[in-house]
C-alpha cells in the first residue's frame, strides 16, 4: 500500500443524519464517490441533530439556524468526519467559520407536492372542500396556499415522511404538502397526487438538491466532492441562496423561489408573503447564469424596496410572541 502525504486520507468519513431520507441521499453520494475513487474507502457515520430530537415544537418557533446540520458540522470541525451530506434546503445560507458548501448535486424536481387522504382521491387543491385541513410545517407553504385558497384550514405537522403520511392516513388531515423530491427519493412517488405549480407555490431555496459541506482548508476533500457537482443546479441554487441570505430575518420565513436557465441566462423568481397570505410580493430578475449570486442579491433588494422587510419584521415579532 502506498501512503499519501498530501492527498485525501485513504478512508473518507461521511457524516449523515439518521432519517431514512438522509440515509438514502448519503448512500447515493457514497456510492458515486466510490465509483469515481475505487482506491478509497467511504464510510458513513450517522448522527442525530436537534431537528431529529425536538419533534413536538413547531419548526417556525424553534427558529434556530442549522437545526438539522449543527451536529454534523461539529463532527467535521473536530475532524471525526471529512464531509457531510445535507438536503440543501436545510443548510443555512451562512456556514460556521471553517466550513464551506463544497458541492451541489443535480437537483430532483424541486416542486411541492400534494398528498391527499383516500376520501379525497377525486380532488385537487382547487376542489378540496371549504374547511379541509391541510398539514404543513412550512410557513412558506402556509402563506402561499392561504393566499390562493383562503377557504382551507392549515394545521402544523412534524415528524419524518413516514410519520406524516401515517397521520394523514389516520385522518388527522385531509391533505398534506411535502417536497416532491423527498417522496421520490424514498420510492413513494405514487403518493404524489398533484405536483403544485410554481404559480401557486414557489419552492424553498435549494429544495430538491443535495449540498455537500466540508472544511474550507481541506482541498483534497473539496477536490473529491467536486466531481459530483452539477453546474446548472449549482448556479440556480447559488442565486437562490444569495437571495435568501440577503433577505433573511433570522428565523424560518415565508420566502419562496423558482429558477430556470435558458441559453446561459438565469431567471430567478422570488416571493415574500405575510403569514395570513394577504400580502404577497413576487418579482423576478434575469441575467447571465455566471452572475448567479449577484442576481440573487439584486432581487432581494428589489423585494425589499417593494416592502418585504416590513413583512419579515412583522413575522419575526409574531413568532416571538406566539
Ligand atoms: N425540512 C425537511 C425536508 N428537508 C428536505 C426535504 C425534502 C427533500 C428536499 O427538498 O430536498 C424535507 C421534507 C419536505 O419538505 O417535505
From TrEMBL:
GO terms for molecular function: hydroxymethylbilane synthase activity. Its cofactor is dipyrromethane. Residues 12-222 form the Porphobilinogen deaminase N-terminal domain. Pathway: Porphyrin-containing compound metabolism; protoporphyrin-IX biosynthesis; coproporphyrinogen-III from 5-aminolevulinate: step 2/4; Porphyrin-containing compound metabolism; chlorophyll biosynthesis. Its EC number is 2.5.1.61. The keyword Methyltransferase does not apply. Keywords: Porphyrin biosynthesis, Transferase. It comes from the Bacteria. InterPro entries: HemC, Porphobilin_deaminase_cofac_BS, Porphobilin_deaminase_N, Porphobilinogen_deaminase_C, Porphobilinogen_deaminase_C_sf. GO terms for cellular component: cytoplasm. Binds 1 dipyrromethane group covalently. GO terms for biological process: protoporphyrinogen IX biosynthetic process. The keyword ATP-binding does not apply. PROSITE patterns: PORPHOBILINOGEN_DEAM. It is an enzyme of class 2 (transferase). Residues 235-304 form the Porphobilinogen deaminase C-terminal domain. Monomer. Belongs to the HMBS family. The porphobilinogen subunits are added to the dipyrromethane group. This is Porphobilinogen deaminase. It comes from Oscillatoria acuminata PCC 6304.
Amino acid at each position: 500500500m502506498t501512503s499519501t502525504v498530501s492527498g485525501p486520507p485513504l478512508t473518507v468519513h461521511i457524516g449523515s443524519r439518521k432519517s431514512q431520507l438522509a440515509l438514502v441521499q448519503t448512500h447515493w453520494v457514497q456510492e458515486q464517490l466510490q465509483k469515481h475513487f475505487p482506491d478509497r474507502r467511504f464510510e458513513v457515520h450517522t448522527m442525530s441533530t436537534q431537528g431529529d430530537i425536538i419533534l413536538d415544537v413547531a419548526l417556525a418557533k424553534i427558529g434556530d439556524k442549522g437545526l438539522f446540520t449543527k451536529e454534523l458540522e461539529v463532527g467535521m470541525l473536530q475532524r471525526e468526519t471529512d464531509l457531510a451530506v445535507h438536503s440543501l434546503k436545510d443548510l443555512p445560507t451562512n456556514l460556521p467559520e471553517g466550513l464551506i458548501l463544497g458541492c451541489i448535486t443535480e437537483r430532483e424536481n424541486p416542486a411541492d407536492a400534494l398528498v391527499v387522504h383516500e376520501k379525497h382521491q377525486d380532488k385537487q387543491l382547487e376542489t378540496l372542500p371549504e374547511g379541509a385541513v391541510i398539514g404543513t410545517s412550512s410557513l412558506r407553504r402556509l402563506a402561499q396556499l392561504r393566499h390562493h385558497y383562503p377557504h382551507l384550514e392549515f394545521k402544523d405537522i412534524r415528524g419524518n415522511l413516514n410519520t406524516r403520511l401515517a397521520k394523514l392516513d389516520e385522518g388527522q388531515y385531509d391533505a398534506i404538502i411535502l417536497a416532491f423530491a423527498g417522496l421520490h427519493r424514498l420510492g413513494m412517488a405514487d403518493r404524489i397526487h398533484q405536483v403544485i405549480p410554481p404559480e401557486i407555490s414557489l419552492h424553498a431555496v435549494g429544495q430538491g438538491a443535495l449540498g455537500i459541506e466540508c472544511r474550507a482548508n481541506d482541498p483534497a476533500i473539496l477536490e473529491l466532492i467536486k466531481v459530483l457537482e452539477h453546474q446548472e443546479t449549482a448556479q440556480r441554487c447559488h442565486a437562490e441562496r444569495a437571495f435568501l441570505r440577503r433577505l433573511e430575518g433570522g428565523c424560518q420565513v415565508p420566502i419562496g423561489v423558482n429558477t430556470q436557465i435558458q441559453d446561459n441566462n438565469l431567471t430567478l423568481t422570488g416571493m415574500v408573503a405575510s403569514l395570513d397570505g394577504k400580502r404577497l410580493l413576487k418579482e423576478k430578475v434575469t441575467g447571465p447564469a455566471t452572475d448567479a449570486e449577484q442576481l440573487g442579491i439584486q432581487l432581494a433588494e428589489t423585494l425589499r424596496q417593494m416592502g418585504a422587510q416590513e413583512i419579515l419584521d412583522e413575522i419575526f415579532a409574531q413568532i416571538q410572541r406566539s
